[in-house]
Design brief:
alpha+beta, Heat Shock Protein 90, 5-stranded antiparallel beta sheet, 18 strands, nucleotide-binding
């Protein structure tokens, strides 16, 4: 009774200690359960968040580059507009200066009955141009000559020092008058090519002269090829005409001719602008509308950009279109490239930082989940260990009580008790190795029958499928096998060299397994021994059967002991926590 009371006291102490540990783990589990362990949105997408931040940063960078480029384009357009205004002003200034010379010449020649070479040269000398004809090829005089007076005029001009003078082309039969070029200063080989040419015979020149006669002011012609060029494929140009009227004897106002200036378009453009001030731009001047056949002059660029500004000017009654084009530049400006590189650098740094932070958050979340799982496992294991220890100590107490009643001496009591405690210890070792998870039947049998199943003369054979047992069931099976082996070693098949023990097991359902113990070749059992019940019989039929929750069939046959145990096979999910912990 003292032993029982002492054992009860140990059980109570162990339960108290385990209950305290269980309470401590419960506090930890409660604290963890109070935290919100559900993953946050950035933890659900650990890769998408950094990529999204990178994309957003690059989008802001691209928008900044777009704004910079737009500002650069607007600034460039503003500069082109200023350049176009400067070019237009220069062109108008040159044309107005030349028109002023033509007006003064028209006023002088209107007072004369005949404009002769000395008078014309004197007029040019008094202008004091010193070779600078304001971007033109000079200033000329074209006299209106009646068709009938053409021979007389040609004769006078030849006698006056121009032996090769001839009006060309010859006037048509229905043409009442011609307007040939009489003089053109400066007197150069180039300008002499135009002397004698009837400008009224050509459509574009004739339209300009008719407009000048109607408006009585300087009028510019359309795009023409000057006679000075010597061929029809020469560079384009234009002319400005100022009509000269005189008074006939009957005081009737009549046209005497035109004082005019021919212009090479390219030279006129270059004289009208200051290339040092406008910078490297492309400039094109069109007569009225923009098309290749109306191009008067052009300053070309090595590579066109397509970014242009247009402005129209009125040049002596003629509408001109001035187009200024920016030079080709890099795809992006220097500021845009720097902004793009800086944005890329920042986006990359943010990508790396966000990736590290999200990864750290995910790892922290995993760690918290692991701690929560460990707390739950420890809590479960503590409760289970409390239950196991109580059951084990209860079994020990039952074994002590049964052993004491069957023992005949103190040595017999100690020896029997030690063997049974060792059997429990061997099975406990298996459960400890499996961390109190499921334990295979074969390992339990091998642990208890190791001395008899090894070597060349093995007395025990085992066969059966893989069956996993719960911890309590493994302990009960180990105790039963120990009792059977001890009995066989003392009185049965394992007590003689010829004896053999065959242990087999099989599944008899989804949740049960049957283990058969069969002894052969040992001493024959007499009827009296078969009827006698020992401690092993009580242990197997009472304790083991109670723990396994199934009856035990134990038969003492003449050939040897035969025992059949039915053991419950638990579902694997009952030990999922420990299995997950081991993996």
């Amino acid at each position: 009774m003292a032993s029982c009371h002492s054992g009860t006291w140990y059980i109570g102490c162990a339960g108290l200690v385990l209950s305290r540990q269980e309470g401590q783990f419960g506090v930890v589990e409660k604290l963890l359960s109070q935290k919100n362990l559900s993953p946050r949105w950035y933890e659900r997408f650990p890769r998408a968040v950094p990529v999204g931040i990178f994309g957003l940063t690059m989008a802001v960078t691209v928008l900044s580059v777009f704004a910079i480029e737009r500002a650069e384009t607007q600034r460039e357009i503003a500069q082109l507009t200023q350049t176009a205004q400067a070019v237009g002003s220069g062109v108008e200034r040159r044309a107005n200066a030349n028109a002023a010379y033509l007006r003064s010449g028209a006023a002088l020649f209107a007072t004369q009955q005949m404009v002769e070479a000395p008078l014309f040269r004197t007029f040019i000398h008094q202008l004091q141009l010193d070779g600078n004809y304001v971007g033109s090829d000079g200033i000329g005089w074209a006299m209106r000559v009646s068709r009938d007076d053409v021979p007389v005029v040609e004769s006078v001009m030849r006698r006056g020092g121009n032996p090769d003078f001839r009006i060309q082309p010859a006037p048509a039969a229905d043409q009442p008058f011609v307007v040939p070029i009489m003089y053109l200063e400066p007197d150069s080989a180039r300008n002499r090519r135009a002397v004698g040419y009837d400008m009224y015979s050509e459509r574009v020149r004739r339209a300009a002269m008719d407009a000048a006669m109607r408006e009585n002011r300087p009028v510019a012609s359309g795009r023409v090829i000057l006679r000075q060029e010597g061929n029809r494929d020469g560079p384009p140009g234009f002319l400005i005409y100022m009509p000269v009227y005189g008074m006939d004897r009957g005081e009737a106002r009549s046209l005497r001719g035109f004082v005019y200036s021919p212009f090479n378009g390219q030279q006129f453009l270059q004289s009208a602008i200051n290339t040092d001030r406008i910078g490297p731009v492309g400039i094109r001047i069109y007569d009225e509308v923009e098309k290749p056949g109306n191009l008067l002059a052009e300053l070309k660029l090595e590579e066109r950009s397509g970014r242009t500004v247009r402005r129209t000017v009125d040049l002596a009654g003629r509408r001109w279109l001035i187009e200024v084009e920016a030079p080709a530049s890099n795809l992006l400006s220097v500021m845009s490239v720097m902004t793009l590189l800086f944005g890329l650098l920042v986006a990359t740094l943010l990508l790396v930082l966000a990736r590290l932070l999200t990864q750290q958050a995910v790892e922290d979340r995993i760690a918290l989940a692991w701690f929560e799982q460990q707390s739950s496992i420890r809590n479960s294991l503590t409760r289970e260990l409390n239950h196991r220890v109580k059951n084990t100590l209860a079994n020990v107490l039952s074994i002590i009580a049964l052993t004491r009643r069957r023992a005949t001496s103190l040595d017999d009591f100690a020896t029997s008790l030690e063997g049974r405690i060792r059997a429990l210890s061997a099975t406990h070792d298996l459960l400890t190795q499996s961390e109190w998870g499921t334990t295979p039947v074969r390992l339990v049998l091998e642990a208890e029958l190791a001395p008899y199943a090894q070597g060349a003369e093995a007395h025990v054979t085992m066969s059966g499928p893989d069956v996993e047992l719960a911890p309590n069931d493994a302990l009960s099976l180990g105790l039963a096998i120990h009792e059977l082996a001890t009995n066989a070693a003392k009185y049965g098949a394992l007590s003689t060299p010829e004896g053999r023990v065959q242990v087999g097991w099989e599944l008899v359902g989804e949740d049960r397994a049957r283990i058969d113990w069969r002894e052969r070749g040992g001493p024959e059992l007499d009827p009296a021994a078969r009827r006698k019940r020992g401690f092993g019989t009580d242990l197997i039929e009472k304790i083991v059967a109670h723990e396994l929750r199934n009856p035990v069939e134990l038969l003492f046959e003449r050939e040897g002991v035969r025992c059949s145990l039915v053991i419950p096979v638990r579902r694997r999910g009952d030990f999922a926590i420990r299995e997950a912990k081991r993996t």
